[in-house]
Amino acid sequence: MVTALRALLVAAALAATATVAPAAPPDGRDAPDLKTLRPGAFVVQQQAVPVDVVFIGYRRQQIDEATLLGMLPQTYRPTVRYPQFYGLNGRDMGLEFRFRYRTRYASRAFENEFFDFLAKAGSDGPLTPFQNAYNDQTRNVLDVAGPVLYIDAPSVESYLASQKDGDRQGYTIYFINWYGRRDFRFHVYTKTDEVDPDTGYDFGTLRGSRKMIAWGGSVSRTWFYDLSAGPESWTNNWLVDDDQSEYHMPPVWEYRTGGYRTPAALTSDLGLVARFVGIDLLFTTSPLYDPLVTAPDVGGAKVVHVSMHEDDPASNGLQYFNREFTRRELRRFEPYYPWKVGLTDHRPIDPGAKRSLDIFANTLVADDCWNALGSTFGQLFCYFNANLARYVPHYPARDYVGEVFGFNTTDAALGALSGLLGFADDNWVDGTQTHVFMFDTPETRGAGFGFTTTTIHEFGHHIGMSHPHDGYDSELGLDFGAAGPFEFAWSGDESATVMHYIALSNGFGTFDRDNQHRWEMAGYVNWSNAVLGDIAGHPRVAAVAGLIEAADEAAGEAVDAFRRWEYLRAATKAREAYSHVALAARQIGASTPTLDAARRALPAAASQRIICEIRHPFD
Asked: What is the pLDDT of residue 90?
C-alpha cells in the first residue's frame, strides 16, 4: 500500500512543475479605470502557504527529511468534489496554493519545558478501554501502564500556538514524541468543554473513544499529532494484531525491529499524515459542494428551514432542536450573510412523508418516484422535491432557502439504516446540493445525539464543507476517505470542527473558516468579473459607473485582505463587490448569460452518496 502511494507521490511531484495562469480578459473589455476587477476574465488567486513541520522529541536520525519533504505536495487547487462523482468538473474555484515548507527540531530546552507542561497540565486517570485492548493484543511490544495522564487538547494547542513567531500567516504541524524520556507518562488528549446542546451529553468526558492523540484548529492554524499518546480508538492504532490492510499509524514504540512497523517506516508514515491529513483535509481542502450555489441574492438572507416530521408518538422532536443555537453557529461561520432559521412541525407525520420514509428505509417495498432514479435511497429527495410547497413556507425571492427535513422516528422505522444521523443530498443530476435529511430516535438520543448539531453539520455540507476525514488530493486527482490505505485519515477528525464525527465541537473551527472564506472570496471576485463582462457593452452602463467603481474598490480590499491572510474580511468585501455589480446589472436591466451558464445543470450520471452515521455509538 505504501509503495503504491509513494509511486503516486513521485508522479505528482513531476506534474507539479506546471502552473495555470489567470485567464486573459477579452480584447477591449477591460475598463482602464478598474484596478482589480477584470471584466469577462477568470482570475486564479494564487497564494504562498508556509507550512512548518516541527518535531518535538524526535531526533534527527529518526527522520529522513528529504523523503518526508518529497512526499508533500507543491501545490493545491481546490475543486468541487461532488460533481466529480458524476464524472463532471464542478465550477473552477479560482484558487491555487503554493507551499513553502520548513522543518524544525525543538531544542532540548523547549522539549524540557513542553513535556513539563504536559505533566503538570494532565490529571491522572484510568487506562482507556482501547489502551486495555492494546495490552490484550498478542503482538504488542509493551503494555501501557496506569495511571494515565488525561491532558486537555485545546490547552496544548494554545501552548504550541503561542510559540509561533510573526504574524501567524501559515500553518504548523507539530509531530510529538514523549516516549523514551525519563519523564515519559502514558497519556491521552481530551476535550470536555462542549456538550451536546440538546441532550447535555459530554462525549469528551464519557466516551473512551474520544480520548485522542491529535488536535488543532480551535484558536490557531496549528495541529499537533502525538504518536506517543494513546493508543486510541479513533484511528484504530491500538490494533497491532491485524494484517495492515487497513492502514493506520501505530504507537511510536511499535516502530522497531519486531514491532508493528519498522523504524524506517516512521518517516513515510509521518509524511502520509502531513500530506493527506494536515494539508489535504485541514489546511487547504476542497468543498464537497459549490459554496456559491447557496449565495442569496443581493439584499437576501440565508435560510435554514427545518421541516420536522414526528414519527415517534412517544417523543417530541422539537425538544431536541435549538433554533437560536443553530442560527448563532452558522452566523459565526459566515457573518457576511443575514441568517434565518425557520421551523414547522408535522405532528403526526403525514401519509406521504411516512410512505417515503418507509420506502427509503426499505421497510416498505413499493414503487414510487424513486424508480426513475434507480435507488430507494432517492425516495426522500424525489418526494420532497416534488412537494416542497406542502412542507416549506414561502420566503422572500431574494433569500436562499435550504430545506432540512427532520424525522423524529425510531430505530425500528429506520430498519437497516438505524444509526444514520443525516445526509446533505444532491439533485441526482450533476452534484449540485439540494435538501438535507436528518434522523433522530430515542436510541440515538441515548447515545448523546440531538437534532441541533446534526443540522449544523449537515448544513455545513450543504454550504460546502467536507468531513475532516475525507477529501481530495489536488496533485494526484484523488478523492479519498478514511478506509483501506487511508484509514489513518480518521485522525483529521481530531480537530476543532462540527464536521468531525467525534462530537467534541458544536461549531466551525479555524481551518473551516480559512477554507470557506477563501472559496467565497475567489468565487465572488470571479462572479463580479463575469457580470461586468456581460454588461460592458450595454448602452446604459455609464449610468451605473458609481456602482462599478465601488465594486472595484471592494474587490481590491478583498484581494489585499486575502494576501494578508485576513480571510473573513476578504470574503466580506468580495461579497460586497459582487453585490454592487449585481445591483448595477439589475438597475440597467442587463442580462448575465455568462453567470447564468455557470449555474446551469449538467447531464446526469450515476453517483455515490455521502452519508453521516454514528461511529462507535456506545464506546
From this structure: 83
